[in-house]
Amino acid sequence: MCCFIEATTPKRQSSGVFFAHFSNLAKNREQSPKVTNSDPNTPKFAYVISNKIPNRPRTKHGKICRTALYLAFLSACSSNDSWRTASREPAGIAPSPETEKDAVIEFYAADAYSWRGWFAVHTWVATKEKNAAQYTVHEVVGWRVNRGLPALSEYQTPTPDRYWFGAKPEKVLSLVGPKAEALIPKINAAVKRYPWANEYTVFPGPNSNTFPTWIGLQVPELNLDMPFSAIGSGYADNE
Questions:
Q1: What are phi and psi of 26, to 5 degrees?
Q2: What secondary structure does DSSP assign to 73-139, as a single string?
Q3: Omega of the bond prior to 204 within 30 degrees of 0, cis?
């Protein structure tokens, strides 16, 4: 558009004359010869005016996309109270410490909260030493940084498989027995070396998926295979 103004408008031409001139050109653009930008001598404004993008008919798929975007907007603007009532109940997929006395290593993934769950997951790590009554859970959570806390958290629980604010978790990795017993000390040592314990960035990372991936790189015996939707896992290679 700047090229058009420079090519057609005298320095002191009034704005009314200019817009009238532009309006006439716009009305007659269909009669203008079609040009392309292959000729270096063709003014840029002529290319813009003559190559009009045709109107595309509205389709059923387009309507669905618009509806999805609208719902995403409503979800993003919804009350913060929704996360308070979202389920954090155990999913019942973790071995119970009451019945499983051997060492256990569990990696979990659940859909991220709210609209982010459409394309991304939240992952965390749980370990239980032999004969322990509870699991130790390590995970990275972004809101902790906003409150002046480390992103990396640790807590004890007999149920490490709780829903992630309404999303049921799935197992990414599960080890029970002597191998788990041998690898838990290596995992604990790797947790202490995690380089982004006080940082969180949704994209590209470091985020909740960066942490388990980094543990897997530090303890290759785990043979960890993170899900494709674990956005931020690739950041673990940036150390």
A1: -65, -40
A2: HHHHTS-TTHHHHS---B-S-SPPTTT--S-EEEEEEEEPSGGGGGT-EEEEEEEE-TT-SSEEEEE
A3: yes
Q: Tens of pLDDT along 84-130?
A: 888 889 999 999 999 999 999 999 999 998 777 788 999 999 999 99
Question: How much is the CA Rg of the chain, to the nearest whole Å?
Answer: 29
Give domain limits for the chain: 2-50, 91-238
> Which residues make Cβ contacts (< 8 Å) with residue 14, sequence separation at least 6?
none
Span 147-198, pLDDT tens digits? 999 999 999 999 999 999 999 999 999 999 999 999 999 999 999 999 999 9
Tokens of 42: 């063709």
